[in-house]
Specification:
homodimer, 336 residues, six-stranded mixed sheet, five-stranded mixed sheet, 15% strand, globular
Chain lengths: 336, 336
């Protein structure tokens, strides 16, 4: 039985969609138990709207909520009874295998490091969302808050990302690339130039060299390594350009009677096509390298994404990703 | 009469589209003379396919061509008779006001600095393309090859970009923002944190704070300041996500008979909508801060973009952008 703690209070549609996602997850997948963390009265009342196997969902009381705009370090330190702090403590005390939250990214990143703690040897835990591509999904690592990264961090990101894609997403020999402004080895800023030869030396990853941002949506690599500032820009621009273009397409279709009729006819086909390019289909972003699993889902997550994020935790645990990360770090230290 | 030198040999469709663009430009706009730089026999033969006022287009012989994959520094140093070196020398010797090329970006950036030279006081000349947004266009500055920038460089980019948008693109009090991973002043990497207060102090620009990448396509700022690595990622991802989504929309429309009929009906409306999101509509990217003007157009430029890039040079010259940049630097030095 795998136990997943879920932040019932975080996210734009909390608590209703968080609770609904938890119910859907236990219905969809045997072997999961969910601990819903949040204000007991609110969560219990929300749960009463659903039918489910009672013994598989438990409510853990947490009286406070961390808002997205609160400075994260302070919030984690002061709001000891917030759903994020209580949920993370469940993971720390091994009363839960994983914690899923759609709440404040900053608080989740800080809490992961401070409460759950890093695996020994991991320098910085990266946040690694899956992004949609023409051919499937790629892991973008790091999109967290680790600014001004060093080459050794990026090498660890490459290793952890590679293990995740191979064992959770079942990609054989994941192609690992570093984000760069040209394809040649001598291109790039100081960080990329120093990291490139280190990645080339890693015998445990399938490093294919530089990737230009233009190639990312084509699915040219499975693991896309970059420091967090660049990763954030990529992730958010992906969303921004996608949303803008889709709204342009929609309004373009409404410009004449002829195109309005056409729009009615293409709508069902377009909907399923664009859905495949919607990041929310692919569960949440794991914060890798922690003693336990913390998953950040979109702030705008609805039940379906919450469900997917919970189920993702099962694969992570079953595949022993953290044990594999530990082994890989040990093997590297031996080599040195 | 404004004289624009055009690289007839650079770009995917050279020389035919470069020559055609030059012919279109002199037809569209009085007061321009074009110097087509390239192999005389080739260019003359291409020109013979067009009718135009002979005295307004002149051929300047250059026997060599710099290929896109050549290391730029070496190419500029060794290929003294290449179209890029010859064209830049025309600007240096003030025999031309501007040089437009769709050739090797690297060679254009290096040649601009080494041959044309920087305006006194300009630390690094940025490459500043216009990118399409929901509401118009924004200037993305810097997308060049200036890696590992310092805060003072970014402040100069903000100033030069602001002058360009105000006087060439006619945007009143252009809103200047710095690319960041959050909206708050305390967020960001070391470079952004150091640059932010410097930009706040600039009384000559309308600094509106941080911009997250998600907001760029919405047109949330007119001048988007970032260092070149990040700028390159933004520019190329813009193209990549756009191209991927459009191809997804197109293939989605072809999935059923119903949607195929719909596609025929929406096509004309969609075409004009998507055209407004096509970067090639907006001419080339100026390399700012040089003693003269150098404009880099897309490698895939066709006649229309070449024409727009040439006409852009007229506004640049007429508005005295370089004089305004010089004045702004002088004013700042006096303040210090």
């Amino acid at each position: 039985m795998i136990k997943v703690a879920v932040d019932a209070m975080g996210g734009d549609y909390a608590p209703s969609e968080m609770v609904a996602g938890a119910v859907e997850a236990v219905k969809a997948q045997p072997g999961i138990q969910v601990l819903l963390v949040g204000r007991e009265d609110v969560v219990t009342s929300e749960l009463s709207k659903h039918t489910y196997e009672k013994e598989r969902i438990q409510v853990v009381n947490a009286t406070e909520v961390i808002a997205t705009e609160e400075p994260p370090v302070n919030a984690i330190r002061k709001k000891k009874d917030s759903s994020i702090v209580v949920g993370m403590n469940l993971v720390k005390k091994q009363e839960a295998d994983a914690f899923v939250s759609a709440g404040s990214s900053g608080a989740i990143l800080v809490g992961g490091q401070v409460i759950v703690g890093r695996i020994k040897g991991v320098e910085r835990p990266p946040l690694a969302p899956l992004i949609p591509t023409e051919t499937g999904v790629s892991l973008l690592i790091d999109c967290g808050a680790n600014v001004d990264a060093r080459p050794s961090h990026l090498v660890q990101f490459a290793r952890m990302g590679s293990i995740y894609m191979e064992h959770v997403m079942k990609v054989e020999k994941p192609r690992v690339a570093i984000v760069n402004i040209g394809a040649e080895e001598e291109k790039g800023n100081a960080l990329v130039k120093e990291t490139f030869p280190l990645l080339k030396e890693c015998r445990d990853i399938n490093f294919i060299g530089s990737i230009e941002a233009r190639e990312i949506p084509h699915g040219a690599a499975d693991v896309i390594v970059c420091e967090a500032f660049v990763g954030n820009v990529i992730l958010k621009l992906y969303e921004g350009v996608g949303a803008t273009l889709i709204s342009k397409v929609k309004s373009g279709m409404m410009t004449s009677l002829r195109s309005k009729i056409g729009a009615l006819l293409v709508k069902p086909a377009l909907k399923s096509t664009l859905k495949s390019f919607d990041a929310s289909q692919y569960g949440g972003a794991p914060l890798l390298g922690l003693n336990g699993l913390v998953v950040k889902t979109h702030g705008s997550s609805k039940a379906n994404e919450v469900k997917n994020s919970i189920i993702q935790c099962v694969t992570f645990k079953e595949q022993g990703i953290n044990e594999k990360i530990k082994e890989s770090l040990k093997a590297v230290n031996k080599e040195d």
